[in-house]
Design a protein that fits this description.
Blueprint lengths: L1 H25 E10 L2 E4 L8 E3 L2 H4 L1 E4 L2 E4 L4 E7 L6 E5 L11 E5 L9 E8 L4 E4 L2 E5 L2 E5 L2 E8 L6 E7 L4 E7 L8 E8 L4 E4 L2 E5 L2 E5 L3 E7 L6 E6 L6 E5 L4 E9 L4 E4 L2 E5 L2 E6 L1 E9 L2 E10 L3 E6 L5 E9 L2 E5 L2 E6 L3 E6 L1 E9 L4 E9 L4 E7 L4
Parallel strand pairs: 9-15, 16-22, 23-29, 30-36
Antiparallel strand pairs: 1-2, 1-8, 2-7, 3-6, 4-5, 6-7, 9-12, 10-11, 10-13, 13-14, 16-19, 17-18, 17-20, 20-21, 23-26, 24-25, 24-27, 27-28, 30-33, 31-32, 31-34, 34-35
Length: 395
């Protein structure tokens, strides 16, 4: 019986010392920073609404300033928590307790619940970004996670956008929100230079006009469709595959050509196009698209001239207006041979009378015996007579 009592006493002592050790470990000392009535504020962060035993019912005393003070009831309730959670306002359920500002108070840490977790909500524009927290992949936006209070390294990544990094502090029992606008990574560009012969041609890339040649521009697409247009030239179109080292292109443009067929009444009139002799009618000429100057000449007929615009194959039948005749009477002193429009009419005197077509004519007088010559121009009007009397200047 004595042995049983001895063992029981040993067990009670061990239990007492173990509880004292646990109490010693669990206790924390906090400083009273404010007091009002039966409210005290201590420099410790605990969750609002949690009840905390300041020894009281468990240990029957509250240690203040190094002295053990008996408290009828040591039960306190956390009434509110400061913004930074470094202080707690504690309201006693008993009347005013003998606690003063600046004194140290003990309470059982084991009775204080651990810090509450907080919520971190992350959104991004655009969504679908991967979320790494402290280097570990946790999900994609929109994203929400519950974490222990503290600071975390957050990184968002999405293909085609720059990574976004941030340090976020999560508070206990609170929701922390972060919204991120991701920056688009600009696609690589290609520089293109286009020249044409002739220049000043309009350049279109994927149906968008870029300017006139010579032209240099940048594009982001590796494959482009180039169209080149210039008035009176055939439209050029080609698909190009670009590279990083250089993209310079020279394109000769082809003029648009059509057939111009000309007939005259009467035939065998000389045909001139833009001042160039093209042969006698009837005549077929390959010409460029656009405006041209067409002239027709035939002896005895009035010269015709007109501007034509070629936009397709063209046929023209032109009736030449016949000249009317007038009379030219020429006398000369002392004597000379006469040529009219390059045709010889012999020596005068006597007086020369000849019928000529209306219009301007060139008359040349010359004499090998007198070693002299003279040239004049005369205008003949239809149905009228023009008289000319000339002589050499005395040498």
């Amino acid at each position: 019986m004595k042995k049983v009592n001895f063992l029981r006493n040993v067990f009670v002592c061990l239990t007492f010392f173990l509880m004292a050790a646990v109490f010693s470990i669990a206790q924390q000392r906090y400083e009273v920073v404010r007091k009002s009535g039966n409210r005290i504020t201590i420099n410790a962060g605990v969750r609002a609404g949690v009840r905390v035993d300041f020894s009281g019912r468990t240990y029957r005393e509250l240690q203040v300033g190094g002295q053990n003070i008996q408290v009828d009831t040591g039960r306190f309730r956390v009434d509110s928590v400061t913004e930074n959670e470094s202080e707690a306002v504690i309201e006693s359920e008993s009347p005013t307790d003998p606690v003063e500002i600046g004194q140290k108070v003990n309470f059982d840490q084991a009775l204080v619940p651990p810090p509450q977790r907080g919520t971190l909500n992350i959104r991004s524009d655009p969504s679908g970004a991967s979320v790494d927290i402290d280097g570990a992949r946790r999900g994609t936006t929109p994203f929400s996670i519950t974490l222990e209070p503290g600071a975390y390294r957050v990184r968002l990544s999405r293909s085609g956008y720059q990574d976004e990094s941030d340090t976020v502090t999560v508070s206990s029992n609170r929701e922390t929100r972060r919204n991120y606008s991701l920056t688009l990574i600009p696609p690589p560009s290609f520089t293109v230079s286009i020249r044409t012969t002739p220049s000043d041609a309009d350049v279109f890339v994927d149906d968008v006009r870029r300017g006139v040649t010579p032209l240099t521009f940048d594009v982001t697409n590796r494959n482009i469709l180039v169209r080149i247009e210039k008035e009176n030239f055939r439209t050029f179109e080609e698909s190009l595959t670009l590279n990083r080292t250089g993209n310079t292109f020279d394109f000769p443009l082809e003029k648009i050509k059509f057939k111009l067929s000309i007939e005259t009444v009467p035939p065998e009139a000389m045909v001139f196009l833009d001042g160039r002799e093209m042969g006698t009618s009837p005549q077929t000429i390959v010409v460029d698209k656009g405006k041209h100057k067409l002239s027709l000449k035939k002896e005895g007929y009035k010269e015709t001239e007109e501007e034509i615009e070629i936009s397709d194959d063209m046929y023209k039948l032109i009736e030449l207006p016949e000249f009317q005749k007038g009379t030219l009477i020429i006398s000369f002193y002392p004597f000379a041979e006469v040529e009219i429009d390059g045709k010889s009419y012999g020596e005068i005197p006597p007086v020369l009378q000849v019928e000529l077509y209306e219009g301007k004519h060139t008359v040349r007088f010359f004499s090998t015996r007198l070693n002299n010559e003279k040239t004049i121009e005369v205008v003949i009007e239809a149905g009228k007579t023009e008289k000319v009397h000339e002589k050499f200047k005395t040498l």
